[in-house]
Amino acid sequence: xxxxxxxxxxxxxxxxxxxxxxxxxxxxxxxxxxxxxxxxxxxxxxxxxxxxxxxxxxxxxxxxxxxxxxxxxxxxxxxxxxxxxxxxxxxxxxxxxxxxxxxxxxxxxxxxxxxxxxxxxxxxxxxxxxxxxxxxxxxxxxxxxxxxxxxxxxxxxxxxxxxxxxxxxxxxxxxxxxxxxxxxxxxxxxxxxxxxxxxxxxxxxxxxxxxxxxxxxxxxxxxxxxxxxxxxxxxxxxxxxxxxxxxxxxxxxxxxxxxxxxxxxxxxxxxxxxxxxxxxxxxxxxxxxxxxxxxxxxxxxxxxxxxxxxxxxxxxxxxxxxxxxxxxxxxxxxxxxxxxxxxxxxxxxxxxxxxxxxxxx
Length: 361
Ligand code: UDP
Hints:
This protein is an alpha/beta fold. The protein folds into 2 domains: 2-174 and 346-360, Rossmann fold (3-Layer(aba) Sandwich); 187-335, Rossmann fold, CATH 3.40.50.2000. 43% of the residues lie in helices and 15% in strands. It contains 15 helices and 13 strands. α1 (10-28) links the parallel β1 and β2. The longest helix has 19 residues, at 10-28. The radius of gyration is 20 Å and the shape is globular. The relative contact order is 0.13. It binds uridine-5'-diphosphate. Uridine-5'-diphosphate is lined by residues 10-11, 14, 176, 207, 239, 263-264, 266, 269, 283-286, 289. One of its GO terms (molecular function) is isomerase activity. InterPro entries: UDP_GlcNAc_Epimerase_2_dom (IPR003331), WecB-like (IPR029767). Belongs to the UDP-N-acetylglucosamine 2-epimerase family. This is UDP-N-acetylglucosamine 2-epimerase (Non-hydrolysing).
């Protein structure tokens, strides 16, 4: 079986790493499976792309479509045109897409129109928020997927509700957690640890890049000033995503606690998360990692497509108002850390399960 694996953006790279390792293992054992890796070029900054390939030992892509930035439609269209040619030049039996970025949806559409089978890893998760481009990508991708690989029973149930055949749905666990477990022994202190005098368990990590939080300069400033105040002497390390950086370019605020740093590589970022006091974020993936690491996480969103991070894990959904974050954060300071659990099958073996299933097809 020839599989074309698609990756376009930072969270995709983290998800494909263990899948590729599992394929290589089976290939070495003589199984009839091989892959071709296509990077769409959606994320192309070194610290959002190359660093992840290097740190996670992902092989160099066989092809880079180099689509770069653009509006939602420009980017989606550019990926589709380039990926169609890629598949004409390099035929395969199955296209495997991960996550919920524009590359996921665009490449699934192209593959299906060329009568190829489509496998979607992290299928079935739903926020219910149609203003999120990711939610549209999820729904469109899942409407044409042949093999659904899910991270939770809830995701599998969502797919059944949408009319998927139960035989197509495979609850396998979470490949992001495979990567976390495979690399926990390799995590590294970032080089600014001493510069900022960071202490284990005594700083906060902040990441923000969703349009609802960062696209309005005035409300972003209000949010940051509020977070700076609630930190109350604890340093807040803020790896600034390029989207957020563009908005903050002309803003000069004198923070007491917030420290801007570049987006971090995986190994330094995981070190920072694992040793933090708490995390404030609008990322979905980070709320999964904090769940497994047992780190308190406050998610600045009104919905989550990963409900198990709040029902089982350490994640609290606080909405997008600073007032609500302050309320939830003070409750946490009063009551202490919640004892979270780890969702079913988030055990580091999801990729192996996926490849074992694909080999039976
Ligand atoms: N991440 C990282 N460095 C950073 C910020 C995030 O390595 O500076 C990792 C993070 O641990 C998680 C993934 O990137 O695994 C999440 O990416 P992002 O927030 O871009 O995507 P989302 O989860 O929002 O889809």
